[in-house]
Amino acid sequence: MSKARPPPLVTGISPKEGPAWTKVTIRGENLGTGPADLVGLSICGHNCMLTAEWMSASKIVCRVGPAKDDKGEIIVTTKSGGPGTSTVSFKLLRPERIGILEQSAVWVDEVNYDMRTNRNKGISPFSLRPSNPLGIEMDKGKAAQKDLEQIFPGMSGDFTSENFSASWYLIENHSGSSFEQLKVAANNLKKHASKKNEGSMASVKGGLSTFFEAQDALAAIHQRLESDGTEKVEGSMTRRLENILNRASDTADTLFQEVLGRKDKADSTRNALNVLQRFKFLFNLPLNIERNIQKGDYDVVINDYEKAKSLFGNTEVAVFKKVYAEVETRIEALRNLLLEKLLQTPSTLHDQKRYIRYLSDLHAPGDPAWQCIYAQHKWILQLMQNCRNEFISVGAGGLDLEGDTRPAALGRLGQSSSLKRGGSMHYQRPSTRLFETPQQVQFVEKLSDVVIGQLPNFWKLWISYVNGSLFSETGEKSGHVEKSKKNARQRQNDFKKMIEELTNRLVKLIRGALLPTTLPRGELNVYGGWEDKTELTGAWFTQIIHTVRGCHEALSTLEIPNDLLQVIQDLLLELRVHCLMVTLLHTSEDVKRLAEKEDWVVDNEGITSLVRTCYDSTKQCSEQRLLIILSNCQYLERRTFLNLADHFEKHGLTGTEKINRASVDAVRELDGNLFEAYIERRADPIAGSLEPGMYAGYFDWRDCQTPTGVRNYLKEALVNIIAVHAEVFTVSKDLVPRVLSRIVESVADEMCRLMQCVSSFSKNGALQARLELCALRDAMAAYLNPESKTIFKQALDSLPQLHSGADKKLLEELLNKFKSSMQLQLTCFQPSNVQPVKR
């Protein structure tokens, strides 16, 4: 048994208002499976089935009848779905009657007007449609329309319908009328029928005397003409009658000439209105384009323009050509506006792509994408040069390029990677006040900000240009994508030269500030000018190297070819060499001046004033002091207090256990506080450097390449732990396990937190994370305490398991490679009998 179809639903009608007999188009859903399925259609309560034409299940065309209601719903009834509903309504306009000689905007059909001068004469029985043919009071019952349709299938209660049913009409309009009233109605119908038969004779009887008079006059004229034979003589009665008739005809023409002229004018006006209504899209398009441009709705403008171009682009109609020419003028102005916005700097990558797509859809001449790339290249070069000029001219105070308030380059890298994965942003570059930092250092940091902030978007714009992703579906259909790819292949060398110019400009600006002797003499005027600035020490060069290296890593993540970044690598090598030379030079000078500070006087503590001076004036010795005190605390607890207890017992002193216990507790408390202070100073920087290093270069665990080894951030963390090991070992070998186990625990806890914060890993990301965790765990195996082992296990458990034998084999190979490459560095973590060096 087939499932019943849903009832019809009318969702639209066009036009939505009009006079009776207006042709309308009805749209909706489930409007019938065919013409036979459509059994009912009413608009404003009037049955329109007689004029209904079923087009499809979503479209019906019909004419609106003279309904009683001015506004009502559109109800469609089908056999398969029954009566339906409507979400729209139709408004029936009832125009006022206009006389035949009255002025009107349109021509009035004369057929609908009764122009008879004698109202008593008979008229055609079909000229009027009485609203109450029975002539008695109507008493409508409560019979439902649906029930009547079931009782009288295929019939109608409308007496004007071809399928009129008298029973339906009586039930619907006179269900409450009495039998006597119905008898009166029958007599009225009989009288009405007799009047119809007598209608034609009544018109003849009413004008019978006129007919006789006309017949007598014609007979007299005929006799007169026969008697005198002057029907063709000038001035005769025949001629006079002809002249009278001609004058009557001329008078009639004159009378109706103005009326007929108004009819012709009304026809012309109506035709013009029809043209305007039919093609209102084109005539309104120039104003709509202007409004949408002001609102920024460029997509709407482009769609309207494409539609107008397809419809009227090749028109031969003069008025259409004129309007379309105005449309083209507005579109050309829009092209110029979009091109101006595209070349405007600064702008975001999203806006650049959007404007390029707009210009492509508007068929702009030239290559807007390449124009944008060229403009961005020149703008970045100018930003870099302005950075140098402003530092040279006004110094570092209050410097702010282009209103840029972003954080420093390396800090922004750490922040963006942290925010990208939803982590907390806590990495910051070491705070240095502007008046304490040399201008060359500030310049390099600011220059790196410019490069890291602008070059990635510049590179991504080129990649989008190469792969054709700058264009919409319209651009693909019109061939813009293939044209763009072809242009990109031809301009690869030009873009490569742009990148080379940017990297060379970066390197030359840094060389001019730090290594001016490496520049040719002719370029010193452009990139030099730092001679009167502060001479830098090795510590500042170290910070500069760190900044430049971060800039290089950020550019490497963009997959820029290594040959284009080779100049930056060469600069880093020269900076390292120069930093080493400056450090050695300053160290040698400091060593030469040591003799001037030594007085060779030894105090009670066994140290000279030179050592005391260095000890008190160097802030970096505070951690070494903590280690010395910790070593002394251990010595007190393990030897001094025991020796004192033995002496007290040997000499028979009693009650010293309480004193000894209180002393040990005090020393242990001091030892614990100092130990925690030292661990905080050494462990926190190492743990804090993991997150920014882990996500340097916009690294993403969900999208990374196959691991090739342990990354540099973990190696740097191990080197920092080795530095702590060396510092502790030089003071006390016994403190090494205690200190390193706590530092390893802190580092492991931070690694576990970072891994657990990652929402998802790719296959390569999981392998890379497992490799780094295992490398750190194996390297510090000698100093793992139970807490550290538990933390490493939790971190590894949070990673996806390796099911592939190839992945496990690759992990083992990379671990062996790591241990082999860092064998010399990791040797310090192995058990040894080497005694600490005493200073």
What does this structure look like?
- InterPro entries: EXOC2/Sec5 (IPR029175), EXOC2/Sec5_N_dom (IPR039481), Ig-like_fold (IPR013783), Ig_E-set (IPR014756), IPT_dom (IPR002909).
- Belongs to the SEC5 family.
- This is Exocyst complex component 2.
- 61% of the residues lie in helices and 6% in strands.
- The chain has 839 residues and is mainly α.
- The radius of gyration is 51 Å and the shape is elongated.
- Among the domains are: 9-92, Immunoglobulin-like (Sandwich); 244-343, no CATH class; 346-395 and 438-596, no CATH class; 657-828, Orthogonal Bundle (Tetracycline Repressor, domain 2), CATH 1.10.357.
- The strands form two sheets. Strands 2, 4, 5, 8, 9 and 11 form a six-stranded mixed beta sheet that branches.
- 22% of the residues are buried.
- A hairpin with a 2-residue loop joins strand 6 and strand 7 (59-63).
- The protein has helices spanning 145-151, 166-173, 179-206, 208-228, 237-278, 280-295, 298-312, 318-343, 349-361, 368-394, 409-420, 439-467, 473-477, 480-490, 492-514, 524-527, 538-556, 562-597, 609-617, 622-650, 656-688, 690-694, 712-731, 735-757, 763-779, 786-797, 805-821, 823-826, and strands at 9-14, 17-18, 23-29, 38-43, 46-47, 53-56, 59-63, 71-78, 82-83, 85-86, 89-92.
In short:
By secondary structure, the protein is mainly α. The chain has 28 helices and eleven strands. The two termini are 102 Å apart.
